[in-house]
């Protein structure tokens, strides 16, 4: 079924610019950045949101300042939810954003795929972030925990990145118990499908070529059963 797979474009930024262009960000985004507690977090937020706009602009062929990206939370309407383009250039495109310890990634799903009620999720995690006592008990299903060798942090980080990507594609984030999202790859191919609450989510690992990190992308919706195909691009060329 790979020929009919949903195509997801992932833009990876490995070196966060020390002075990302702020001209493309909204006053609301700049206020959210300034409210963060450390300069590293503020810089990462500004760079991530700049990359999101540059990546979408690159795909749709308009200046980033012409994009209207909404971050309204479905629960409280505050501007801290997943990104969406409701109108104008790029309307209907599936978007997802993640950052972890200097790495930033944006996933884009073409409007024609998103129009089939397909949502996208992307996640990057540090391998050492899962190295705490009790991780298996709070994050993995019994089957997942039994399948992993004790102390295998890379394998655990891989599962965690898959779970977060799936949760983002579902639109729930980790409000859903991650133990209910099973993402074992039976044949070790790095791709598969999760069924969560009756909804099908296709996922696949994203090879970053960076030691100490795991990443995954996921799509949820009417075309999820056809699988997912990821194209990875160097986002540094956009800055």
Care to describe what's here?
This protein has helices at residues 27-34, 39-60, 111-114, 135-139, 142-147, 153-170; strands spanning 6-13, 69-70, 84-85, 94-100, 103-109, 118-126, 191-196, 199-205, 213-221, 228-234. It is of the alpha+beta class. The protein has a single domain, classed as Ribosomal Protein L22, Chain A, CATH 3.90.470.20. The strands form three sheets. A four-stranded mixed beta sheet has the order 4-5-1-10. It has a four-stranded antiparallel beta sheet with strand order 6-9-8-7. Strands 2-3 form a two-stranded antiparallel ribbon. Helix 1 packs antiparallel against helix 2.
Contiguous low-pLDDT stretches (5 residues minimum) are none
The H-and-E topology, N to C, reads as EHHEEEEHEHHHEEEE
CATH class term = Alpha Beta
Oligomer: single chain
State the end-to-end CA separation: 36 Å
SS field, number of helical segments: 6
Coarse morphology: globular
Percent helix, as a range, is 25-40%
How much strand?
25-35%
Please, what is the average pLDDT? 90
Q: TL;DR?
A:
This protein is of the alpha+beta class and 239 residues long.
Which features would summarize this protein structure in a list?
239 residues, alpha+beta, 4-stranded mixed beta sheet, 4-stranded antiparallel beta sheet, 10 strands
